[in-house]
Amino acid sequence: MTTEDTVYKGLAGVVADYTAISKVNPETNSLLYRGYPVQQLAAELSFEEVALLLWTGELPTESQLAEFVTFERAHRALDPRVKSAIDLLPTDCHPMDVGRTAVSVLGANDPQSEESDPETELAKSKKLFAAFPAVVAYDQRRRRGQEVVEPREDLDYSQNFLWMTFGEEAAPEVVDAFRVSMVLYAEHSFNASTFTARVVTSTLSDLHSAVTAAIGALKGPLHGGANEAVMHTFEEIGIRKEETREEAAARSKAWMEEALAAKKKVMGFGHRVYKKGDSRVPTMKAALDAMIEHYGRHEIIGLYDGLEQAMDEAKGIKPNLDYPAGPTYHLMGFDTELFTPLFIASRITGWTAHIMEQRAANSLIRPLSAYNGPDERQLKK
Ligand SMILES: CC(=O)SCCNC(=O)CCNC(=O)[C@H](O)C(C)(C)COP(=O)(O)OP(=O)(O)OC[C@H]1O[C@@H](n2cnc3c(N)ncnc32)[C@H](O)[C@@H]1OP(=O)(O)O
Ligand SMILES: O=C([O-])CC(=O)C(=O)O
Question: NCBIfam families from the xrefs (predicted)?
Fold first, then answer.
């Protein structure tokens, strides 16, 4: 057998390279960012601190954090060139297309776009991190016919994100649930979008091209698009505010039984690596529970319970992070199509950390294929 005869469909089980950024361990259901359990990071740290940890490998000192916080707050405003580009896009195009376009425009206008020394790569990553929330906030507001809300330098990343989107200061519980979601979505080893970013970087292309490509990979419902798809499932089942938790659970359980009988794939469940449950779900579920209490929307958790229970009973498949994240963002007031752009805002950290790691020890990513087309043949004269 030649090497070309061994095909690893979907690269399942293939170890493609080393990484020191995160460790996903399906045996122990654990996830470490630079060695730290993600649950601890979500409980204790700001998203800004986690971003620095992912990029640099170490927790920031007080002065490093203060310096980054000042930088981030100074780079939040929506770039007028990005605003003009978004304004050319129809309000009914997918918000992931808006996010992808915005990153592309930011890259084309970044004077450091073609520079790739480690210091510049880090500076570009920080600028992208700071600039992206305004894109999401602007996009949601323009779709609703609302005016732009300018960023506020007295607010932290999560507070300001919610401020720019909704034009009012969010309650501390809401800010905290949002921060937790950002920390949990930040990084997950060689997932499809991160691997895409690494493939692009491996050709020595630039950081913004790699992130733009990663956004394309994240959009699909088998990856990041699942958080949006989860909410569409809830919407299809029907959200009825007057229902009790038990009534909602009974209806969603029946919906799932029917969907599985029809051999449907239900987004928000299953994972390529975790087979016993996603390490991040308990923490995100706690954030969702806090939002259920905050908004008093017990019918939503009923829908959640029913789907989860029916899937477990029928197939033993567990929810992934997108499952609790979807209804959490819904309760906060984000439009459903905006959920995956929120994932971008967070994953910019992981993607750019991987881009820097790939560039530092690069080898062109170019696997082989096993040809199964027609045997050699000749053009008829
Ligand atoms: C943050 C994230 O990106 S997490 C992932 C988000 N994606 C989703 O939620 C999409 C829904 N889930 C899926 O499609 C899959 O579970 C994936 C793509 C995530 C992982 O899939 P893989 O490891 O390739 O497993 P695969 O898709 O082959 O599934 C194995 C079996 O479980 C079933 N299965 C897996 N997930 C689901 C699901 N969500 N609904 C119904 N059945 C499922 C498959 O139909 C298949 O059954 P079969 O063996 O009878 O054909
Ligand atoms: O690891 C994966 O394949 C998908 C995932 O959970 C993520 O990117 O967060």
Answer: cit_synth_II (TIGR01800), PRK14033.1 (NF010636)
State pTM to two decimals. 0.97
Tell me whether residue 294 is one of the annotated catalytic residues.
Answer: no
Residues 16, 32: Cα–Cα separation, whole Å? 19
**263-273: average pLDDT:** 98
Q: Which of 138, 99, 116, 93 is nearest to 347 (CA)?
A: 99
ipTM value, please give it: 0.98
Ligand 1: residue of 31, 194, 283, 315 to mutate (most ligand atoms within 8 A of CB) is 315
Exposed, middle or buried, 187 (CB in 10 Å: 0-12/13-18/19+)? Answer: buried
Q: Which one of the ligands is nearest to 266 CA?
A: 1
Closest residue by Cα to atom 6, ligand 2, is: 188
Q: Is 350's C-beta closer than 6 angstroms to any atom of ligand 1?
A: no
Q: pLDDT-based confidence at 4, cuts 50/70/90? A: low
The single residue of 271, 278, 330, 354 carrying the catalytic annotation is 271
**What confidence tens digit (pLDDT) does each residue in 64-81 have?**
999 999 999 999 999 999
Q: Are strands 30-33 and 22-25 parallel, antiparallel or unpaired?
A: antiparallel
Residue with tokens 């930088």: 71
Decide if 322 is catalytic: yes
Closest CA to 229 of 275, 181, 267: 267
**Mean pLDDT computed over every residue of the chain:** 97
User: Average of pLDDT values for 228-257?
Assistant: 98
First-residue to last-residue Cα distance in the chain: 36
The amino acid that residue 47 corresponds to is: F
- Domains defined for the chain, CATH in brackets: 22-219+344-361 (1.10.580.10), 226-332 (1.10.230.10)
Distance 211 CA to ligand 2 centre (A): 16
Structure-token pair, residue 308? 């989860």
Q: Is 269 in the pocket of ligand 1 (CB under 6 A)?
A: yes
